[in-house]
C-alpha cells in the first residue's frame, strides 16, 4: 500500500508539466523516503532526475518500496481536474494494477476520482552522473527561459562560456550570429541566500555547446522555481536544476555537442565517455535528425 | 414588415455564438410574439430550441408571421462590427429577399449596415419533446463547461447519474477511467431562487450516457447565463437549458447513447422511440462517425 | 562609419513590425540626415516609404551616405532580445559586410550583440508619388485596423467614399454586403491639433476600391501612432500614413483596383498610369492571384 497526500494540487500539476514534455512515461519509484524518477528522454539524449521527499507531503505512507510505470501525459490530464488549492491523493494498493488519483475541493463538495492504468515500461536503471563541476551559474529561471527561446530563433546550438564575472550564451546562425552576456551580481557562492541577478562560481574556463531544443524543454520547469542552477565542466553533461520548495528538486542532464571537425578533440571524446558513465553521449550526426 | 431593436448588441452576439456552432443555418420564425428557432444540427443528432420574446426587445414590430432562412455564421460575422453596447436593428421588408442588420454606436456617429441574403432551407417542422423529467440538476454554467471539456480528454461519452444528494459524471477511457462527483448544496427545488452550487431535484434513479462532443458544443451558451439546467429521464433525450435574461431561453436536446451489447434493452429502445416523438434517436453505430 | 543609438528599443521593434510584413528585405539608405526606406512589396503592388530623422536619435553619426541591404525579419528577431526600454545601437563600419546591433539594459548588466549579414538586393530606385490629394481622412488608427479586419471577413476589396461629413467603407460579399459609415467630428482641417474622432478634408467626390489584404498589412503600423491619415484622389494610389513621434513617419501607397467591366473607364486608366509615375498599377486580373 502506497498513499500520499498533497494539500496543494498546483505543485503536482507544475511538476508534471516539467516532466511530461521530456519524458512521456517512465518507471517511478515509491519508497518510504519519497518518490523518485530517473529517466532518459525517448531519444536517449537527455536525463531527468526528480526527487520528492516524503516529509514534503501532508500524508505519506509507503509499506514497501515499489516501482510503477506511469504515463505522465495521462496523469497531467487527470490533474487538470483540480484547482491549484484542491488536495490530491495518490494511492496504489498492492493488488491493484492501477494508480488511483483523488482530487478534492477544500469544501469537500467536488471530488474527482480516477484510476490510471499501470504501464509496463522496459527501462534499465540509470545512475545520475556525479561530478565536481568547474562552473555553476545561478540565475532567474524566467530570464533563462526567455534567453533560450530567443537564441533558438537563430540556430540549433548555444555555446555557454563562463568568465569570472560574466556568463555568455552565443549562437551561430545563417543570417545572424551573436551573443548574450550577463554580468554577475556577485562573484561569490551562488548559495549566499540572495535571490537576485546572476551568480557565478568558477574554478576553470569552460566553453561548451548544447542543443537548444533540449534546453528549451528543460525550461518547462520554470514555474517550479524562480531560480535555476546550471553546472558545467568540460566534456561532461550540463546539469540544469530547479528546486521544488519544501518538496525536492528536478534536475536535467544534457551531453555537450562535440564538433566533429576539430581533430584535436579525440582525447576529449574519450574523457566524455568515461565521465557520463551510463549516459549515452550523442554526437553531432545523431542529433541532427532530432 | 418585421423590425426589432435590441439596445445591447452584445446579447445577440452571445446568442449567435450559442447557436452557430451546432446549427450553421436554419429557418427562423418571426411572429408577433417573438423570434423562435427549432432546428436539428446538420448530423441530426441534437435539437436546438431558441425563444426570444417580443417584450424583451426595445422595439418590436411584426405585421405578419414569416419564416426566414438565416446563415448564423454570416450573421455572427456581421455582429462582430458592433461593440457590446451598440444597438442592433433587424429588419425584413416583405418584398426583400434579404435581411437588413443595422449596428449603431450610442453617439450615432458609427453606423454599420449590412444586407444578408435570405437562405432557402428545406427542413421539416419539428416539435419539441415535452417530458416530465425524473431528474433536474441546476448548476454553475462555467463549472459544467469546464467539467465536460475535462472529461472529453479521456473518452467520447459521459455517463450522468443522479443520487439524492450528488450528481456523478463518469467517463471510461483507454488510459484512465474516473468520475466527478458534485454534492448538492440543497436537495430542494432547483428554482428556489438561490443562484449557487448544485441543486438536484430527483424522483427516480437515472443513469444515462451522452456524446461529450455535443455537450461541449452546447456549452457555447455559457456566456448567456451563469446557470445551466440539465433535465433527464431514462431513455429520453437530455435537455440542457440556459435562460437569456429578460429575453427568453435556449435549450438543447440530445438523445442518450444506447449500448448495443445489452440484450435486455430492447424494451427501452421502443420506449425511446415513443418518447422522443419526431426526434431522431441515433444509436451507437451512427454516432461513431460523427 | 555609421552609428546610431536609440534609448528606447521598443520604437524600433514596432517600426520593424510595421515594415517586415509588407517588405521582407530592402535596401536601406543611411545618410547624414537620417535613415530612409523606399521599397515595393514582393508582389510589386504596394509601396512603403519610411523616414527616420537623424535628430530623433540620441546619437547619430554618418560619415558618408551608404546603402545597406537588410533582412527585416532577421532584424526583428534580433530586436526581440531587447526590453522596450533597453537601448539599441546600430553600427556599420565601412570595411564590414555586416550590420552590428547592440542591445543593452539600463543597468548595463545585460548586453546582446549580433552581427547581421548584409544582403545584396537588386532593386531599382523608386520615387514617391507626389500628389495634391482631393480627400484626406484622419482617424483613430486602432479603429481603422478593426474596420479593415472586419470588412475582410466578407470580401477581398473595400470601396472608400468620402462625403462632406462622412466617410464610408463598403464591401460586396457573396453572403452579405454592407458598409461602415463614420461621421466626422469636425469638417475642418484634420491637422487642427485635436486628436479624436474622424476628420475629413474634401475638395471633390472620391470613390475608390482597394485590396483589403494590403490595407490590413498596412495596419501593422497601428502601434506606432494612435492616428492614421488616408489620402485619396481618383485614379491615384491611396496613401496611408502614420507619424512616428519625434522620429519620422511611415507611409504606404496602394494603387486602386480598376473594374474591368466598366467600359467608360478607359480614360481613367490612362490617367492612372500618368499619376502613379514609376509605380506599377496592377489591374484586377493580376491581383486575383495575390
UniProtKB/TrEMBL annotation, chains A, B, C:
* Bias kind Low complexity: ranges: 178-187
Keywords tagged on the record: DNA replication, DNA-binding, Nucleus
Main location group: nucleus
Subcellular location, in the record's words?
Answer: Nucleus
Regions of biased composition (Acidic residues) lie at 259-290
Task: Specify where the region named Disordered lies, as residue ranges.
Answer: 178-197, 258-290
Which GO BP annotation is one of this protein's?
A: regulation of DNA replication
A GO term for molecular function: DNA binding
- Residue ranges of every copy of the Proliferating cell nuclear antigen PCNA C-terminal domain listed in the record: 127-257
Write down any Gene Ontology CC term: PCNA complex
Domain Proliferating cell nuclear antigen PCNA N-terminal residue range list:
1-124
Leader sequence segment: none
Q: Which Pfam families match?
A: PCNA_C, PCNA_N
What is the recorded function of this protein according to its Swiss-Prot or TrEMBL entry? This protein is an auxiliary protein of DNA polymerase delta and is involved in the control of eukaryotic DNA replication by increasing the polymerase's processivity during elongation of the leading strand.
Q: Which family does it belong to?
A: Belongs to the PCNA family.
PANTHER family (alphabetical): PROLIFERATING CELL NUCLEAR ANTIGEN
Q: What is this protein called?
A: DNA sliding clamp PCNA
Amino acid at each position: 500500500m502506497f498513499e500520499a497526500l498533497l494539500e496543494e494540487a498546483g505543485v503536482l500539476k507544475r511538476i508534471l508539466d516539467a516532466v511530461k514534455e521530456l519524458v512521456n512515461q517512465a518507471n517511478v519509484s515509491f519508497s518510504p523516503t519519497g518518490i523518485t524518477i530517473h529517466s532518459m528522454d525517448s531519444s536517449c539524449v537527455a536525463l531527468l532526475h526528480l526527487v520528492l521527499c516524503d516529509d514534503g507531503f501532508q500524508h505519506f505512507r509507503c509499506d514497501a518500496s515499489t516501482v510503477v510505470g506511469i504515463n505522465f501525459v495521462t496523469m497531467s490530464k487527470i490533474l487538470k481536474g483540480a484547482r491549484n488549492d484542491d488536495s490530491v491523493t495518490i494511492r496504489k494498493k498492492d493488488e491493484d494494477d492501477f494508480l488511483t488519483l483523488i482530487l478534492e475541493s477544500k469544501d469537500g463538495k467536488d471530488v474527482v476520482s480516477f484510476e490510471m492504468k499501470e504501464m509496463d515500461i522496459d527501462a534499465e536503471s540509470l545512475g545520475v552522473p556525479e561530478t565536481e563541476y568547474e562552473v555553476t551559474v545561478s540565475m532567474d529561471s524566467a530570464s533563462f527561459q526567455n534567453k533560450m527561446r530567443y537564441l533558438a530563433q537563430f540556430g540549433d546550438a548555444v555555446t555557454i562560456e563562463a568568465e569570472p564575472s560574466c556568463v555568455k550564451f552565443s549562437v551561430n546562425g545563417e543570417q545572424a550570429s551573436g551573443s548574450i552576456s550577463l554580468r554577475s551580481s556577485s562573484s561569490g557562492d551562488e548559495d549566499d541566500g540572495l535571490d537576485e541577478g546572476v551568480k557565478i562560481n568558477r574554478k576553470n574556463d569552460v566553453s561548451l555547446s548544447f542543443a537548444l531544443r533540449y534546453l528549451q524543454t528543460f525550461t518547462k520547469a520554470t514555474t517550479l522555481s524562480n531560480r535555476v542552477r546550471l553546472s558545467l565542466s568540460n566534456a561532461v553533461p550540463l546539469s540544469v536544476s530547479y528546486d521544488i520548495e519544501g518538496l525536492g528538486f528536478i534536475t536535467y542532464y544534457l551531453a555537450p555537442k562535440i564538433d566533429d571537425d576539430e581533430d584535436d578533440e579525440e582525447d576529449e571524446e574519450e574523457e566524455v565517455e568515461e565521465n557520463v558513465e551510463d549516459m549515452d553521449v550523442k554526437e553531432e550526426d545523431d542529433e541532427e535528425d532530432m
